[in-house]
Amino acid sequence: MQIKKINDCFVQYHFEVQNDEFENFIQKAFDKVKNKITIKGFRKGNVKRNVFERFYGTKALHKDAFEDLLKEKLTYIWMNQQEELSLIGEPKLIDFQLGKINKNKNFSFALEFELKPKVVLCSYKNIPISIQNIIVTDLEVQKQIDVLLEQKAVLKPKLSDDILSLGDIAILDFRGLCQNQYFEGGEAQNFSLEIGSNKFIEEFETGMIGMKKNEKRNISLVFPQTYPQKELAGKPVVFEVHLRDIKIKEQVFLTDDLVSNMKFPNIKTINDLKKHIFNELVKQKQKKQKEKQIQEILDFLINNTSSLKVPLNLVHKEATILQKKLEDELKARNMTLEKYCQILNLNMEKLKQKNNEQAKFNVHTSLVLDEIAVQEKIIVSEQEINDECQQFSINYNIVLEKLKKNQYFLQNINQTLLNAKVLDFLLKNALEKKEKEPVR
């Protein structure tokens, strides 16, 4: 292996692969697939390699063999990285064409890595951060209790009359038309709506008041200019409504028995419940304050290391990760990217720009935090990485040993844990500035 530093930004690792070395990888590639090979006249699993190559060609195994060879070389590079060469990101394969590998001949290839840029740190101790008193009011606790009681409420048929009134629960079907065309997302069946809850447009809910059970009615209204679906904003629409049933909520009162039946751990009485809710609200506000303080620290570091040249390939990679994460989150909510853009009043170009800005911020932040870790000798232990791998293995049902062999995964875990440690260090060494307004 030869190492060539191209400039301050890139380094190349050149490899000369001997024929017998690559032959070992070809044999391993064949061993992986031989039990799956089916060739007429041979029993499955009994096909010899020379027979396989006669049918499929001598280069049929080259792709898998080279991928395994590449993994081995990459592992060697990462494990034997020179201290003065700080590699970042995934390498680029250069000076290589798979189709040009010939039997019984040596071949060469190179891997080009981007080097971590030199980070000139600002003064990172005593970064000013805001701190506020944490206040939880009785009203906030009561609101959480009201939510619990709402969840416990039982819906019963309305027996006093069959006319829909404010506060009743309507069970309805509806379809919306705009310019005599049914529009996407404008229909539902057996939908439950509390009249007066303002979950729908006000005119829709008030337009239903007075309807009788099984009555059908057309409700006309105009969507507000701020309506998320831009093509419908400010447009007149008509909803065809069928009121299937009318129900009322049977009020539930808070008692020790009700609390006990909720089966919360160590919560048996109303006072227990109130204390628990109070403590949870305090934790939420403490978390919110910490997130704000971290953002203040990151903004300070970014603004005071603005001369740092952020590697574009890392920005592109981070942007891809952010995009994939967003798409997965939207998919879990049955929402398309286009719909998401409509709600935020963004076009795809603006979303991409916003994504790239966040990616650049993330990479810049990570580089600065890395350098602070070096200066302060902050490290992540092998045990911490193992613990994180084990938890990931349990959460996502992935074989632990498989995770531990994935160098990129281990790097990401290490980076995440390291960033968290450095941020904790910066928070402990920050200059707290008390604000008058409490965290509410």
TrEMBL record:
SUPFAM superfamilies: FKBP-like, Triger factor/SurA peptide-binding domain-like, Trigger factor ribosome-binding domain. Residues 167-247 form the PPIase FKBP-type domain. One of its GO terms (biological process) is protein folding. GO terms for cellular component: cytoplasm. It catalyses: [protein]-peptidylproline (omega=180) = [protein]-peptidylproline (omega=0). Keywords: Cell cycle, Cell division, Chaperone, Cytoplasm, Isomerase, Rotamase. The keyword Hydrolase does not apply. Its main location: cytoplasm. InterPro entries: PPIase_dom_sf, PPIase_FKBP_dom, Trig_fac, Trigger_fac_C, Trigger_fac_C_sf, Trigger_fac_ribosome-bd_bac, Trigger_fac_ribosome-bd_sf, Trigger_fact/SurA_dom_sf. Its EC number is 5.2.1.8. Belongs to the FKBP-type PPIase family. Tig subfamily. Involved in protein export. Acts as a chaperone by maintaining the newly synthesized protein in an open conformation. Functions as a peptidyl-prolyl cis-trans isomerase. This is Trigger factor. It comes from Candidatus Phytoplasma phoenicium.
